## 1
Amino acid sequence: MASYTWSDAPRQTAFPIAAAGYPFIAAAAFVTAVFALLGMSIPALLGMGATACICLFFRDPDRVIPNEDGAVVSPADGKVIVVEKVTDPRFYDGPCMKISIFMSVLNVHVNRVPFGGNVTSVDYHPGKFLVASADKASDDNERNAITVETEAGKRYCVVQIAGLIARRIISRLQTGDAVRRGQRFGLICFGSRLDLYLPPDFSPAVNVGDRVRSGSSVIGTL
């Protein structure tokens, strides 16, 4: 029987919300209340709908993490749009396996650690806000690259990339942090993409077009 664990303690609430969403939800609820107090029923109803949508966007469900030896879990919810071997010295020394996951505004946007280890670098790069699914998004868009070294001495890099609507990348990780597989580490507000650069001997278990869930979907093996 497959074994699973919690990487983070389960939330004691029926509908967990990421803390980064509280200001957006509070602002939408406040504007909705103003419209309601002024007797503006249609704007108030629209405000209620917008508030509900923001709550859904910032949902942060608990996930059980598979305990398979060597399993690499998806860092994001969304659709796999790239699975290929590349050479990109910005994120990995030498040839590597690249997997890209596109998150629409309908997906959960909380990001999770693909594999345990220690953070060796965090490199933020300002940039443009092209559509995240576009090929040039990896090169031109605002991004945050996190490199992790595993206990076995292997390295991988996970890159948070802002999208057309996204205007804020959030990451709690710093150089020197120890991380666990499936641990929450950040999010990207309102539509985005994650690129994962893995050792060349990485064996992918996903194909372009597959749908994955952060923390619980195994995307391959180290």
## 2
Amino acid sequence: MTGPDGQVRVAVNATILDEEPTGLGVYSAAMIRALAGAGARPEVFTASAAALGGIPVRRVTGLVRPSRGGMGHLARIAWSQAVFPARAKLAGAGVALALTPTEGAVVPLLPQVTIVHDLLPVRFPGEYPRLGRFFSVVLPRILRRSAAVVAVSEATKHDCVEFMRLDPARITVVGEGCDGAFTPAGREASVEEMRREHGIEGYFLYVGSLLPHKNVGGLIEAFALAAASVKGPLVVAGGRDERFLPALRATSVALGISDRVRFLDYVSRDRLPALYRAADAFVFPSLCEGFGLPVLEAMASGIPVVTSRSSALSEVAGDAASLVDPHDTRAIADAMGRIGADRAWRDGMVARGLERARSFSWERAARDLLAVLERAAGAG
């Protein structure tokens, strides 16, 4: 259904949004804003509108907030199945959009488009005990009953075909974008800010969770190998997850580099650009990613990137990063050492990274997604 102005009305399940958004929350808020700018009329259902820039929302219970942990996760799934389909239909929307797999409905009452970011709970079930059964039992039903499925990368599309047994013709790849706040402009001020607030400068940076597949332990081992040839500390930012932090600290102690590894807690979205642009380099040796937004943000910030050649990371980075085998700590260490030793190589990588980042925009992603939504609404 469209409004009187011809805009397609999209009921958006945005219960993933919270005051301190995760990566999925950042994606969801950016996509909603971009969809509104691309000509859609989003009817946004959420408990938190903080990151939506004034877009009107239809408030839902705060019980679904991700910050409530496991209880919030269960409440979000239950609300998405039992409440959202009816509210979306009552809102007069022509199509429903699930911004993440857990927000999709098994029995949608409107044509539904479901976005899949990754199938990590299928690949690494031990890391996602609450999501394992959902992804193996419930998600296949959601995807089969969706009018269309969107994957954020070719790698994720491949996983949907392999693990969910979907027809590849039903899956459209729509990449992510990069916030304009991530830019090299203001580097000197950012360096001073990081020195003043955290006592760090000339550092190698990692941004992300501490989940085992992120390979932070391997990164610390690689940094130990490179420590004699590089200056500054290794900064690990993104949250002090007590399930994994003690073991990572113990690794740094055992390798004799505990004084050169800094663990920062959650960094707010408005402070993150300065953290990136003040770094000497960004290192992201994850074993598997559905997209890899931090790699894109680092390239846009004008710093060289070392990342994995596996999964979607090489797809996002292209020839604009140093691609390594994430299982090979020596290769990671060598790439880190080369950044400081080979200025021409470093500068070339930075230039290619800036150009590469410009090819990813939320505006383009929203236009591509809106085309999928309009087809689904028309087919319904």
